[in-house]
Amino acid sequence: MAAADLDDTTRCPVATWCESCNRTEDLYVVTADSGMGGVFCMTLCGECCERPLPQFGVLEATTRVAEHCGHLGIDLDQMADAVVTARRAADVAESGGA
Ligand SMILES: [Zn+2]
Ligand SMILES: [Zn+2]
What we know:
This protein is of the alpha+beta class. The chain has one domain. A hairpin with a 5-residue loop joins strand 1 and strand 2. It starts with 26 loop residues before the first strand and ends with a helix. The site of one zinc ion has 8 residues, from strand 2 and helix 1.
């Protein structure tokens, strides 16, 4: 069973500025774990990609997760399922790799 690839950013729109420092060049879409059962995307410049991600409030993070679901063509239930599947896979890799 193939779970949705939550880190796929091929259909995510790139903003015209870095969402961390407002730079307008050298921009990339990156994904981040909201920590609340979802992954979202944002636009960062090359420099900010190397730094800790900016923190978002619960409401904005939730909104962004919903938007990223739209980019991936999945709904919030499928997003939640994919997060659980990814965590399980990580757990298996951890317990099996030691
Ligand atoms: Zn930046
Ligand atoms: Zn997205």
